[in-house]
Amino acid sequence: MTTMTSPSVDDETYTMLQEIMADEFGELLGFFRxxxxxxxxxxxxxxxxxxxxxxxxxCHKLKSSGKLIGAFQLAELSSSLEGYKDDHDHxxxxxxxxxxxxxxxxxxxxxxxxxxxx
Length: 118
Hints:
Layout: H1 11-21, H2 25-48, H3 52-69, H4 72-82, H5 84-87, H6 90-112
Helix pairs in contact: 2-3, 2-6, 3-4, 4-6
């Protein structure tokens, strides 16, 4: 039995965004990458400080930006971590952050494998 895994980024969403953004698409992806890396670092600091409100705010933004480019698993993991603002389960949140970092690496690898737009 073969197990199919879905790509880290939805092709249709990505292509549609690429068409809409045209010349600004590369810049948008650059912002996505830089902002997500900063957010992941900030999330670690907020978890270390047990600042659940800030974790929720950062995850809400990550969820939106992930959905925008078609990184739906990244958005789902962001949503899971966003729950820390309500449940304050530090151990679960730390695991969610690890999963989020791993998924971001997959998204970056997927993005890096895409051909440059003409």
